[in-house]
Amino acid sequence: MVSGTFVEAPPLALAGEAGVRPASRETGRSRARRLAPPYLYLLPAVVLLVVWTYQPLAQTFVLSLHSWNLVPSTPMEPVGLANYEQLLSTPELGRSVWRTVVVILGMLPFTVLIPVAVALLTRRVRGRAQGVYRALVFAPMLVAPVAGAAVWQWLLDPSAGAVNRILGTDVNWLNTTGTAQLAIIVITGWHVAGFAVLVVTAGLAGINPDYAAAAKVDGASRGQVTRWVTLPLLSPTLAFLVLMTVLLSAQWTFPLIDTLTQGGPVGSTTNLYYLLWEYGFRSHDAGLAAAAGVLFFAGFIVVAAVLTRLAERLSHHDD
Amino acid sequence: MRRSLPALASAVALTLATSACGLGSTGDGGGAVSRAPELDPGQQVSIVFESYNFGQAGAWTDTFTELIAAFEQEHPNISVTAQKPQGNSANPATDTISSLQSQLSAGSPPDVAQLGFSDLDFTVNELGALPLDDLVGKDTVQANFDGERHAYAPPARTLGDWEGKTYGVPFVFSTPMLYLNTKLFADAGLDARRPPRTWEEVRDAARAIQQRTGKDGAYVDCLTKAAKDWCFQALVRSQGGTVLSEDRSRLTFAEQPAVEVVRSMQEMVREGVMPNRTQMQAVDAFARGDLGMILESSAIQGTFLKGAGQDWELGAAPMPGFGDATPVPTNSGAALFVFSQDQAKQRAAWELIRFLTSERAYTTIATKIGYLPLRTGLVEDPEGLADWAARNPYLEPNLEQLEHLEPWVSMPGPSYLRIRDGLMQAVENAVFQGADPAESLRSAQRDATALVPGGDK
């Protein structure tokens, strides 16, 4: 290798002396050699990103302009914007967007309020009991959603279930349009609250205790310290949790909806993700599902941009 | 910013270059299928058999594994790999089509697949199941239906046909039955040996059970999206209506007969004699002994028998009708289809189908799982199922129904599931959530009409 380079170098140098044109080619080549390494280093990452993320995204877009049932032997028919037209004219889409908003609002207490309260309270518990409390709160997260759903189904059973016996009601929680969504939200909340507590606890651990100590020296009560020192410093964590809730709530509910209500009764628990899945994998309408996916993608980009902007503005950073 | 442009441009170029590949092909799927020649005795072939029965633990898997072993012994040159559909639904039967689709898109479909009758249109026209009449000859297919000793029941022979050609061999099969809890009947002062024959009688019996025992009266498992539309079609047919016109171009489920069916079911819920339950809740409640009657597929009978045990006894009656009209049951169940591309595999697939629908296989399937034998003569054959039939009191109403059975009509076009779901959601909305039946069905039919190929938009 090394000798090869040596042998190659002299003719290049000679060519350089010979005229103007080869000289410019030589500088072009050396420029390329100078500029290439950063791109070469980036190349593996970019290729993977393109193959696994951007290419499917582009394919989704292409697919959204076709009518196709996912079977390779049937040709894809280009249909222009017909899928988008059909999608925007179905009342199902609007209803499922609204249900998604309800799920997000319903999840916020479980991902923000309760975790903050629990994390602040468990902080006061000392010693081994603290670990036990945290483990208890985190435990539901470790239960597989489908297994948890089976137990909840049993608890919510209209004739033999514990919930109805305790409340003295005879509501069929999962099969009444008014209560099914509530049941899904509470079960999902029960499931993810432990994770949110973990995030808040990590956020609290990252706050320098000197601030609280200083405030106490100045005569601040425990409540005042929490309100004016801890919570503002926790705001980046809370903003992160809100962002997660907005973007992921509908996905968290998916396994529960699939096992407990299948989007019913009468579509009352069909949110965006469930609708998307029904179009693509139950109705085998790849074009329509892709069009819905593209619309949601665009929608969530806007939502995420707004939220990150807001989070930047509202958060206090301990720099 | 300017520096990153080349990188961005190349990323975009790479994306565009790769985005076109990997999606649908433009090759034509149709065309005549040539005859698959007989296998040489020494020719080794391996095939894949996909059936949702392998996803159901216990009797189902065990029986099918046993049958496959017997087949391999009989055909030493054919080896069979059995698999369940890909996916993780609680009920593996709901994964069949999506599983097949993903394997077709990967280019390696199973050679034999067991698929439901409701998917027939899609299976033949979109998934490209092979016509058995072309593959092995019409005579061979008909000879298999005639059997060695016992022929298929006449209404069962044509259930897997499409435009005069046989694509699927009907395999397992069930009809809607009215199951009774005889203990609740006795407690309510009713005679379970004289079960209700009409829906009016069902309603009266349910009211009596509810008032005298405090348990729930009756549940009709044909009225929700999860139940699919098979026995709803039976109810509508019994009332003299249809859900789809004869030429498959027009939906007819918003017409008077269907509306009347939905209205009478809604009244049962309003009066409180039919509880508001999901399919799963109702099946559980009946198995527990908390429900007097349930109209249910005979495929669930095993679950009920297990639940009955010591505490109560299971009774069964044919599907009730409306007034004096004869009830028209429809069948649920599945047929066996061939998807292999290779000729040797196609022939081996046919051999497997022939074995699985033979007298011998049906004897095993009926005794071990309880499915109805489609070769009905077997139940009188002392060498076949005569013993088993004598011990099985639930068989008679089921066989009685086979006489006037009508096929479960599959919805048309590639969006057939959205049509079916739309219909059943409208039914559910009216019956259990109190919406107006006529209005609910009309708006569902209006939405679904655009999905019917060749339907008026």
Automatic annotation (TrEMBL), chain A:
User: Which protein family is it in?
Assistant: Belongs to the binding-protein-dependent transport system permease family.
Q: Which GO terms describe its biological process?
A: transmembrane transport
Q: Which organism is it from?
A: Prauserella cavernicola
| InterPro entries assigned | ABC_transporter_permease, MetI-like, MetI-like_sf
Q: What is the protein name for this chain?
A: Sugar ABC transporter permease
Cellular compartments annotated: Cell membrane
Keywords (A to Z) from UniProt: Cell membrane, Membrane, Transmembrane, Transmembrane helix, Transport
State the organism's lineage.
Bacteria, Bacillati, Actinomycetota, Actinomycetes, Pseudonocardiales
The ABC transmembrane type-1 domain covers 97-307
In terms of superkingdom, the source organism counts as Bacteria
Q: Which Pfam families match?
A: BPD_transp_1
Topology within the bilayer: Multi-pass membrane protein
From TrEMBL, chain B:
Gene3D superfamilies per the UniProt record, alphabetical = Periplasmic binding protein-like II
Species of origin: Prauserella cavernicola
Name a GO CC annotation attached to this entry: cell envelope
Q: Which SUPFAM superfamilies match?
A: Periplasmic binding protein-like II (SSF53850)
Q: Known InterPro entries for this protein?
A: Bact_solute-bd_prot1, SBP
Tell me which UniProt keywords the record has, alphabetically.
Signal, Transport
Q: Which Pfam families match?
A: SBP_bac_8
Q: Where is this region: Disordered?
A: 81-105
| Cellular compartments annotated | Cell envelope
Task: Keyword check for Cytoplasm, yes or no.
Answer: no
Record protein name field: ABC transporter substrate-binding protein
What is the annotated signal peptide range for this record? 1-22
What family is reported?
A: Belongs to the bacterial solute-binding protein 1 family.
